[in-house]
Amino acid sequence: MSKRTNNPDNIFLKTWNCTFCRISLILFTSVLLLLFLISVLANPILNLIVKPQIINSVNRDGKIDLQIEFLDYSLFQNALTSYKTILTLTDSTGLAKDSTSIIIPYSTINGINWITLLFGSGYTFGNLIIDNPEIRIKNFIYPENQMQKNNSPGNTVKSSSIAQQITNILPDELNPLKISKIVINSANLIKIIQDENKTVDSVKNISISISDLNLNKDFNYKDDENSIIGNYEIRIKEFHQKMSGPGYDLKISSITASGNSSELKIKELIFQPYISDEEFFKGDKYRRDRWIAKIPEITVHQTDLIKFLNENIISISSLNIPNFRIEIFTNRRLPIDPASNPEMPHEIMSSLSFGIEIGKFQTDNSLIILESVMPNVERRAHLEFTNVNALIHNISNTQRKQTKDNPYIITASGNLQGEGKINIKLNYPLLSEQLNFNYKGSLGEMDAKLFNSHLEVEDKTHIESGKIVQATFSSEVRNGIAFVNIIPIYNNLKLKILDEESTEMRGLATLLINAKIRESNPDEEGKIKSANINYKRKPSDTFLDVILLALLKGLGEVGF
Fold first, then answer.
1. What does pTM read for this prediction?
2. Strand runs (DSSP E) across 155-277, as ranges?
3. What CA–CA distances, in Å, run from 229 to 2, 126, 358?
4. What are the tens digits of pLDDT across the range 448-483?
5. Other CB atoms within 10 Å distance of the CB of residue 415
């Protein structure tokens, strides 16, 4: 039997291995203990030291109030969770009456970049997930003079872009702020009128996904590479806005938007009063309109959310709204407000606090109904345009889009009273300082008696016979004066005046009117009479009044 000998190298190796094992075990245990201590101490440190610093930093300027009930940090997931967070922003005008509160029961942010955080070079995170937040907007009803002050052109809040407003809210300590992705699940938005304590708006089931959020006060936001967000997806259901002042309800079944497709879809939009017409006009001193709009679908192509956020410009390639139905009802029993001065389209566009660049609007197979009531008449005057097809180019108020050579253009057609084919083309420079535009159009063959549904109520006139063969018209409007040319071709026109007070008066008026009118155009000698008139806009005239009243004056000159 051989005798075993000890090798010094083996003894050293065993000793080293044993020592390494002990050291490794000690280090591993120490790391576990350290991690345990960090995880145990993380929440007390967060809530006793870090949370007050965050709150004080955000609340420092007095316009923002941040409240956080509890913070929780998971070391192994590198995730920070907040519970019952409330962020309130007061009115930017300094009145401290309007406020927006964001109530977040639960939110978590992961992928915290501790290197940029510890070295003070900004905040970089992975995903921010917010579950079931509620946004409450409390709106104070301002006096009229205060509203005019807040809406003045010099309002710096409105002139700045959305991105600038967001970054201005951001405390300096959070500059720059980068988040890879924000996911908001099942959000609700509620708007409350403070004076009446009524909920007037609500948007339910909002889902938003935003990728590559980048907030940096030093960025040039006119550069897409420095945009506030890289991509987005928005899904909204059950949009409801109740306008208690005007008395309208706005309901939308769903809204979807995506940065990938640059498309926005709105389905089943209904805009109508939530009260009866009698209640709607109750208490009115002067004349006004009641609207009802029903739109099955709106498709917006190539929406540029980045441009809106960065440059405060609503930029859309095309807007398509087929098969819509609009009803406009006017209570003409009430007088026109002598102090009214309706804004013209160019005045409306110039007063906006944001830019608009819509390349094209298109609709087809749509319906427009115009109705009104007059004193002592129960039935409604009725005019309708069926199968309306319209194409509008260049709806914009920016100088790079709206130019003298590229104005706002409407080309439209439809059937008047379901029969007469009507066509119109209108050019309007929306950046003009005066009311300047021109249009031309035509009306095809139709039975003149179809106008009785309107004339019998508004003018107490009945057409007994008559046929419109064709009518052409054109107008040049310069500085609010319309220069109109109209050529109506018709035959066998006979009228009857309706007067509820006296049969004799009615007969005499009918005799006089038929003696005055031109029964046919051309007449028996084949002479065609046209009208060249001018019409000066009255202060109370609307844009449509400028067109329609000028045409009616022209018809009167012809003898229609």
1. 0.76
2. 177-193, 198-215, 231-243, 248-258, 263-273
3. 81, 14, 22
4. 999 999 988 888 888 899 999 999 999 999 999 999
5. 16
